[in-house]
Amino acid sequence: MERLWALLAAVARIAVWCGGAMLFAAAGLVTVEVLLRKGLGYLVGSNFVFSGSDEISAYLFAVGTSWSMAHVLVTRGHVRIDALYLHLGPRLRAALDLVALVALGVFLAAVLERSFDVAFTSLGEDIHSNTPLRLPLAWAQIPWFGGFLLFFVALLLAFLRALAALLRGDWAQVAATAGIASQDEEIESELRGLGIGRGGHTGTP
User: Fold this and answer.
1) Interacting residues of 190 by C-beta distance below 8 A, sequence separation 6+
2) Is 169 helix (H, G, I), strand (E, B) or coil?
C-alpha cells in the first residue's frame, strides 16, 4: 500500500507540473494575442485577431486544472471547514476524514461518468468545435477526462489507506492521508517551497 501511495504521489507530482505548464501556456497565448491585436491593429489601422487563441487557452486551462487535482489531494492542499473539526478528538476526526473522502468520491464518480461520456461521445462521433479552427473536441476532452480519472484513483487509494489506518487505530496515519494540514505543516510546506528551513537557514543550492 505504501509503495502504491508513493508511486501515486510521484505520478501526481508530474501531472501537476504538466498542469502548471499548461496554465502558463494558456496565459502566454492570451498575452501574445492581446499584444498582437493591439500592436498590429494600431499599425495597420484595423483590429487584428489571432484566431483560436481563446479556444486553445480554454482547453489548456481545463486539462491543466484536472491534471492538478490528484496532487492537491495527495498533499492535502484542498480546503475544508475546520472550525469545529479542530476541537474534536483524534478518533472522531479520523472517522470524519473518512466520511469526507466518501462524500467527495460520490461527487467525483458522477463527474467521472459525465466526463467519460462527453469525451468518448466526441471521439466516437468525430465532433469538432464550432469555431474557425474546427478542432476535434476529443483531443482536449480525453486528457481532461484523464485528469479526473487520476484524481479518482488517488481518492480511492487514499480511502483504502485511511481505512486501513483507522481499523488499526492509527489516527495519525489517517490524518496524514485524509486530514487537514495543521498550521505547522502549512508553514513547513511554505518554507520548503522557499528553500528555507524552520531554523531560518536557506537550503543548499
Assistant:
1) none
2) coil
Please return the burial class of 147, using the count of CB atoms within 10 Å of its CB with bins 0-12, 13-18 and 19+. Answer: buried
Query: How many Cβ atoms are within 10 Å of 88's Cβ, its own excluded?
Result: 13
How crowded is the C-beta side of 42, counted as CA atoms within 13 Å?
5
Cell 487537514 locates to 180
Task: Tell me how far apart the alpha carbons of residues 134 and 111 are, in angstroms, rounded to a whole number.
Answer: 26
Cell numbers 466526463: residue: 115
Residues 16, 17, 20, 22, Cα dihedral to 10°: -100
The neighbour count for residue 173, using CB atoms within 10 Å, is: 17
Could you give the CA distance from residue 164 to residue 27 in angstroms, rounded to a whole number? 42
Distance between CA atoms of residues 153 and 165, nearest Å = 18
User: Which residues are registered as beta bridge partners of 136?
Assistant: 128
Long-range contacts formed by 128-137: CB under 8 A, 24+ apart: 129/55, 131/52, 131/55, 132/51, 132/52, 133/51, 133/52, 133/55, 133/56, 135/55
3-class SS of residue 136: strand
Tens digits of pLDDT across the chain (205 residues): 788 889 999 999 999 999 999 999 988 888 887 777 776 655 554 555 556 778 888 899 999 999 999 999 998 887 677 777 778 888 888 888 899 899 999 999 999 999 999 999 999 999 998 888 888 999 999 999 999 999 999 999 999 999 999 998 888 888 888 887 666 666 666 666 666 755 544 444 4
